[in-house]
Amino acid sequence: MGWPDLNLSSSTQVTLCVATGCGVVMAGLLTLRQLKKWRMKGKKTERRKDVVYLHGFQRMKFTPSLSGPCLKVETWLRMAGVKYEFVDASKSGQRSKYGQLPFVELNGTEIADSNIIIQRLARQFNADLDADLSPEQQAVALTISRMVEEHTKWTMYQYYFVDRLDLFTQLVGLPGPRIIHWLIRNRVSKMMQTKLYHQGVGRHSKTEVYQLGNADIRALSALLGDKPFLMGTKPTTVDASVFGQLAQVVYTQLPSPHRQVIINSCDNLLDYCDRIKDQFYPDWELLCAEGH
Ligand SMILES: N[C@@H](CCC(=O)N[C@@H](CS)C(=O)NCC(=O)O)C(=O)O
Ligand SMILES: *[C@@H]1O[C@H](CO)[C@@H](O)[C@H](O)[C@H]1NC(C)=O
Asked: What pLDDT shows up at residue 113?
């Protein structure tokens, strides 16, 4: 289809073409999230001094958050006894400066990334859960967190977001018509497959991925042994981190190789999750009742 003959000079036609192209791209960029952000901008929410505002993904039916890092920070805040309020970022459309969740606001300052959040809050509230650990124990704790957050987690993603996409709707509890579920599901899966490929886990066969994940879970079980918490009798930051990830497979109640190995041969991890849930989430059911 050509341009209608309006006797325009060729440079005007080029300008029009570019302008139209820009318009289409701009319209594409007007995503739902941006619309949400604009809508929220006018509504200035009140923020109190010394209260941590935790921005995370929406509540879920089986767990307060489907995001490991979000649940980790929330668990840490409870372990450390720091006053906080949860802000549903799926309503506000907000993300951190890294484009992710969680992030917190404290006294008008934004802190992003679960590890940085915990480090900063521990200092500002004088609530370091790891103060009594020896340097060696601190190193072990850090190593465990890294394994779970940077490896085990990906083997779970491979299962839920790629291999068993049929479980997606139950997992994330989407509202609305099925065609929308289908579109979101496929988009999320495509994104996840790219991430998994670059991370490396996604290059293995399913069987290999589940073996990798289950080896991590057995290692966690062996490290925990009969202790109530990973580093001994008191909860420390690594427990928040591990709980953030394990709670997803333990409480979501969808089948998975990770869940299977926990139930079949890691009783101590089940008790461990229940211990943390019972001690720090007396309101677990209430939080999940808000969930989708
Ligand atoms: N290193 C970050 C990781 C946070 C992260 O992976 N967040 C994911 C959800 S679990 C996220 O926000 N993804 C949304 C996106 O990438 O758009 C942390 O520990 O806080
Ligand atoms: C937050 O701000 C208040 C008042 O400005 C100050 O007293 C308090 O120490 C700050 N809290 C933290 C944790 O930095």
From this structure: 98
Ligand 2, residue 107: give the atom nearest the CA.
1
Pocket of ligand 2 from Cβ distances under 6 Å: 49-50, 107, 124-125
Residue nearest to atom 15 of ligand 1 (CA): 100
Residue among 137, 126, 149, 150 at smallest CA distance from 236? 137
Tell me which residue has tokens 């934004």: 110
Query: Using one digit for the tens of pLDDT, what is the confidence trace for 63-81?
Result: 999 999 999 999 999 999 9
Enumerate domains of the chain plus CATH numbers: 42-124 (3.40.30.10), 135-289 (1.20.1050.10)
Q: How far apart are CA 65 and CA 248, in angstroms?
A: 8
Nearest-atom number in ligand 1 for the CA of 66 is 10
pLDDT of 29 higher than 90: no
What CA–CA distances, in Å, run from 130 to 79, 135, 140, 237? Answer: 11, 10, 12, 7
- pTM, full prediction: 0.88
* Ligand 1: centre distance to CA 114 (Å): 9
Among 48, 107, 109, 126, name the best residue to mutate to test ligand 2's pocket (greatest count of ligand atoms within 8 A of Cβ): 107
Q: Where are the alpha helices (DSSP H) in the chain?
A: 10-29, 32-41, 68-80, 89-92, 114-124, 135-147, 153-157, 168-172, 178-199, 206-224, 237-251, 257-265, 267-280, 284-289
